[in-house]
Design a protein that fits this description.
Blueprint: E1 3-7, H1 10-13, H2 18-31, E2 37-42, E3 58-61, H3 66-69, E4 82-85, E5 97-102, H4 106-110, H5 113-129, E6 132-135, H6 138-147, E7 156-158, E8 180-184, H7 193-201, E9 207-212, H8 217-226, E10 231-235, H9 239-247, E11 251-254, H10 263-270, E12 275-278, H11 283-287, E13 292-294, H12 299-308, H13 312-327, H14 331-342
Parallel strand pairs: 1-2, 1-4, 2-3, 4-5, 5-6, 6-7, 8-9, 8-11, 9-10, 11-12, 12-13
Helix pairs in contact: 7-12, 10-13
Length: about 350
């Protein structure tokens, strides 16, 4: 039986987010697997209610607060374990195998000075020491090999993320009296929320629905200048509400300059929502031919694609293709491939 040590430091760095969502699902899949014995290393801030039902598994807490522990080697109790870290920590002692997950190179692209240097060095050490670096997209793998050209390409493998179709599926029903374009997630800098607002401003009688962190007063003032009376805020939405917003949107707009994967693209597709995204980064491999991809980061280019969705035939084609594309990315597939790396049979015992 494979002995697995899951370093869950990510829960001390972000409670909600793409990485913590992936890691939470990995823990659930591992602890429910009949052929895996797991130990979980958790941050000191973890609450009992956040812990999975462990049965034959063990839970350990970090020795130090996350602000310090994130930079220190992680304790591993079982030398025979496969040690898999959620966020670039190396094991404190020798292990059977060391695996690190690699999500993106946002720090390298958009941060500067000390935060960039520290993160980059920690990531370099982790990837250099690892037996395997599991990348969430081909684009992320390309970034890894570009950033660290001395790394053996054979150790950089791609296992894409999945969309949970038990939570994301079509749920038609009136959300607003009129049509709206949906924007989801963080809005700063490279997320290019400015493009979304400016593109919708060029389309008459359409509102911009904003689902994510609460808007600041500065953002509200800016939106009133660009889209007076045509924006709606839905802050910190539940999965149920997000499903409803996707399902009833005229389109989902994803103009980000860069992402390691772009899971909201698949969430929208699973809800029968047409997708318009930037033709860059990981988006072409995630969206396939099931989205309208924009080659120029310009509001008029996005508004042109929004107008094209008034064509019923095109809209129907994208919805059908999107549903099929989302079906190609499942969590069962993700963890079957990952468990195969751990040394389990190809079916991973998932069935």
């Amino acid at each position: 039986m494979p002995q697995l040590a899951l370093d869950s430091i990510i829960f001390g760095l972000q409670r909600f987010g793409g990485i913590s969502n992936f890691w939470r699902r990995l823990i659930e899949a591992a602890v429910n697997h009949p052929n895996i014995s797991a130990e979980l290393l958790m941050p000191t801030t973890i609450r009992a209610a956040d812990l999975p039902r462990m049965a034959k598994h063990e839970i350990y807490l970090d020795d130090f607060p996350t602000s310090l522990a994130r930079y220190l080697p992680a304790r591993v109790w079982n030398r025979k374990a496969i040690f898999h870290t959620s966020y670039y920590r190396i094991p404190r002692r020798g292990v059977d195998r060391y695996i690190t997950s690699v999500y993106d190179f946002t720090y390298e692209r958009y941060f500067s000075a000390l935060p960039k240097l520290i993160h980059h060095q920690q990531k370099r050490i982790s990837i250099s020491c690892a037996d395997l670096a599991v990348c969430i997209s081909r684009a992320t793998r390309d970034d890894l090999l570009n950033q660290f050209p001395k790394i053996d390409p054979a150790k950089a493998v791609v296992i894409p993320l999945g969309v949970d179709t038990t939570h994301f599926y079509p749920e038609p029903g009136q959300v607003l009296a009129g049509p709206y374009v949906l924007f989801v997630g963080q809005r700063a800098g490279y997320k290019r929320f400015d493009l979304a607002a400016s593109a919708v401003a060029r389309i008459k009688d359409v509102s911009l629905m904003i689902a994510g962190p609460a808007l600041t007063e500065e953002e509200k003032t800016s939106l009133e200048k660009v889209l007076p009376g045509r924006w709606i805020e839905e802050s910190n939405v539940s999965t149920t509400r997000l499903r409803q917003l996707y399902s009833n949107a005229f389109a989902f707009l994803f103009p980000s300059d860069y992402e390691g994967f772009g899971l909201p693209i698949l969430e929208a597709m699973a809800c029968d929502c047409p997708v318009i995204a930037a033709n860059r980064s990981s988006f072409p491999e995630v969206a396939g031919d099931a989205a309208l991809l924009v080659s120029k980061q310009d509001p008029e280019a996005y508004s042109e694609q929004l107008r094209s969705l008034e064509n019923a035939e095109l809209r129907s084609r994208l919805i059908i293709a999107g549903r099929k594309q989302a079906g190609c990315f499942t969590w069962d597939r993700t963890f079957a491939e990952l468990f195969h790396l751990y040394g389990l049979p190809d079916d991973g015992g998932m069935r």
